[in-house]
């Protein structure tokens, strides 16, 4: 764990020569970069108002990934978290291909996850109550250098904290609470402390206080389903499932209960059970530890001897995206769940959030370093918000596909919701809640009888028909899906920090129509806005015989652009112009020359003379995999193409080198569009003032949204 430091109330606390102010208001957790804001802190007196370039609110996976990237890029930042301890209640657990690709470059985080996750054979299946298994996950590494992973969010946070500690972050946990830009009550007197920051990044989750106080609204579908999440351990159950029916997700429907069991770790017996509930007839308070244990036994079908309920939480499923990602004169930016809320079907939530952070970090760095215009921040919204809207629609579609299984068995969730609405509208004001509850549970009991052995068997005509319908859904792949390679790897930015391609067939709407046909096949693309396609490469003119991905041509330690070319004279000319202009802009850029397989050293040495006096280039050799003969062929382009790749591994621009008549002018135009220099606006002189108000002791139970405000 990262180092822990604390201090008494009302004093300045020094960390490696820098200062942070601790107060006696609500306890909070602060992740601090070492040395702490040494170039921004103006002294040690109580009247000092510090200025920070970036403050991140929320220390979940998205906030921590963002802080890691910014720190690697040399941007000073702090992460504020309202909770003293990180929750151990497992939440997100599925990490898709694209997110694992990002984690590869976070000091080996992807490797740590692969070594720490449960064995693949224990979680690659979905299991239904009929013993029919659903989708089996694909672990081939043809389209990506790394596979998907199954790793609980709270464990991911632990790993991220260790990584942050390794690059100069410190976790500070004060005895009486942290005070940064806070107004608090101490002995009947209001005390204030203010903090100025250039940018405030809201990564504080689905119920974001930052979003609420910035006045940004969510748009979409609310209250799709209310559920109770039960975190429990049972090694007995874990051993049984490992031996008899290994899987990740268990959809259980029987006459006694209905629920979805998520096996976070079969080896250690760690589970989360999701149970639908219907207030106000059913209240969260009704789900005591004893009741939850009884439901677990009903769903399992036998009684494990060691069930230990660890935590019980209610939650509501929404499908919403923020109306905008940037507010308050471009000083507040939303990332992760603060910007979008999805149904869990498909695992889009955390993955989309991590990719938000990856998109934003390099832009913040170039802005802070004076390379890009402030307008580049708007490209974060124009690129990521359409992806969130698409993922919202896809997760709702996937949720409905998951519900097709119980519907086929005679347990249509839409019927249950309709019954609940009828009771609320017609009986809610007439009969007592307890009687309403009895009516509701009686009707649900009749519904659950549809999956009894008496009805659901091949000898019963109705049961036989339903089982046939179930098999059809599974055989045709129309049930819940967890892997979406076309969407995970094939999404493309249409407008943003790139040179848009003027092709009608490449619009985002066309991409949506293509994916609406449920085609999940990933097709590599070198169009502007696409993620750089993966192929194995080998470095030339070095003693290293190892292979690596084309994605590794992009540096993960600094915001560097990469121009990919083939060894052709016109392409070398464009590359020299690129290096010259990038040097003028102080923009890290390198040239990557892709040679055909089997190229000899004598030819490869030509790059040295063609690119002199520049040395920031690399020669690599293709390692193609049948049936593809070359990287250019895989990308459906010719070797005359040149491709400019951004620090987030998305393509910023492509062209045919022999079409460029004036290399210098063309490169200047490209960088001007990508860095938004053509629409440079006057930098705001007024910093953002973050004022967090802590209420009196009498109102400490109020939610954060009632205890904070942001002013400019």
TrEMBL record:
One of its GO terms (molecular function) is oxidoreductase activity, acting on paired donors, with incorporation or reduction of molecular oxygen, NAD(P)H as one donor, and incorporation of one atom of oxygen. It comes from the Eukaryota. It holds the Pfam family FAD_binding_3. InterPro entries: FAD-bd (IPR002938), FAD/NAD-bd_sf (IPR036188), RIFMO-like (IPR050641). GO terms for biological process: ubiquinone biosynthetic process. GO terms for cellular component: mitochondrion. This is FAD-binding domain-containing protein.
